[in-house]
Amino acid sequence: MTALQTTIDTAPSAPADRPRISAAPSQPTSAVSAKTWLAVFGATLGAFMAVLNIQIVNASLADIQGAIGAGIDDGGWISTSYLIAEIVVIPLSGWLAQVFSIRIYLLTNAILFLLFSAACALAQDLPQMIGLRALQGFSGGVLIPMAFTLIITLLPKAKQPIGLALFALSATFAPAIGPTIGGYLTENWGWQYIFYVNLVPGALMIGMLWFSLEAKPMKLSLLREGDWPGVVTMAIGLSALQTVLEEGNKDDWFGSAFIVRLSIIAAIALALFLVIELTTKTPLLNLRLLGRRNFGFGVLANFLLGVSLYGSVFIMPVYLSRIQGYNAEQIGMVLAWTGLPQLVLIPMVPRLMKRFDPRLVIGVGFALFAASNFMNIYMTSDYGSDQLFWPNVVRAVGQALAFAPLSAVATAGIEPENAGSASGLFNMMRNLGGAVGIAMLQTFLTKREQYHSNVLMQSVSLLEQATRSRIEALTQYFVNHGVIDRTEASQRAVVAIGHIVQKQAFILAFSDTFYLLGAALIVALMAALLLKKPNHLEAGGAH
Hints:
Layout: E1 7-9, E2 20-22, H1 34-58, H2 61-68, H3 72-75, H4 77-100, H5 102-121, H6 126-154, H7 160-188, H8 193-196, H9 199-212, H10 222-225, H11 228-247, H12 257-279, H13 293-322, H14 328-335, H15 340-345, H16 349-355, H17 358-374, H18 385-411, H19 419-459, H20 465-480, H21 486-529
Antiparallel strand pairs: 1-2
Helix pairs in contact: 1-6, 1-7, 1-9, 4-5, 4-6, 4-11, 4-19, 5-6, 5-9, 6-7, 6-19, 7-13, 7-14, 7-18, 11-12, 11-19, 13-14, 13-18, 13-19, 13-21, 17-18, 17-21, 19-21, 20-21
């Protein structure tokens, strides 16, 4: 047995729901077998597909809604159901992997993910699609933390930066490239292919995992010893919170009785979950890990990274569609430049972590990501693909530099028995940050558009000669283009000016949202500066 053909068992001195991973000491700790790398590659490919399926569907949501007869408001549940299931299963995966064994649990959910992906393409109506998307999210959500867990348990400390760089492709590259793939497939092949596209890489993933993961006996007795109060309160709390964040802006937040009720349920359930986890002897998640300096500040920075990562992927297509009139494929081509440079940069990050202090690499990454947002705070009506090119490239560089080193520093020193909790918390908080970021930006965009409209309308007064001259010019334009009644032409001129003002207000509001994202990343940068340098990540490659 090599050092990385690990054995997971439960030590008598450890809580029953935490795995102890022992490695044979006969081989150097830096030796990694081909089978281990195959497991890591397969698992990270699964995580990539699971994250990709968030953005690839969002890019084609309008086409899916039309095909299955869903309204704009109800169609949002196509994405919401996936996100709710995913965020609930992520923190559960560490414990369930012990119950059913990593091999059985990961392979079963990988197969189910492909089956539900194909089934989504065959959905005939909204209820079918929502149900299938929830099942797809529940099985796909398993792939994200399990990939992270395998990296920090199977790989020695010296090789973890390479594994985490691979994982970064799922965490930062997949959200960036999702709209590009989704837009292309929808425009050229049809929306069904955004689900069928999972099948070929999914089959490859299953093959790699089937060959590389070692068979272990299931421990169904752990089901009786499980932290069921924690499981129930967490599932209810996270489901309610995710629904509030996804639907709140559309339903006017606390002006909706539905949102108020869900908010109360989320607050009570999550409060109970915290109490249970901090008092039970065998918690579902070891929340005390957050008290460790590196992990606590790392999770905070990762949460804010999720806010900005998913927030920017959300706000950019909205801007390009609403202001510039781009279709899904055109939007995807613009966003491609936030993803493609990462394919070149991410493989170089482990070398940078050996050459430089990883905290410096994290700081530069967050600074560049923040700068890319600040580059977009002076937008105009002519601000399109050409003007967004360099901000998107800078953003890609920043994301590539930030994530893998942050993951490595945050999880340094995490014991094998706490790997499942660390993986669940780290990945759940990034996804939760994305949900918070999108909800925050939706509301912020609405409020800032209203503010700028009010300010601009004060300058558009009939008492102003410039306004009267503009109305007269537009009136004459409509008369010259077939409007016989001059009164109607004048009314159209006033409406046209209103649309111009509203468009300009939206452009200013979009600029404000990028400023807000940049500010969030500055806070993430400050959290990263508080990280302590782990011994095994010394510059120069010392271990």
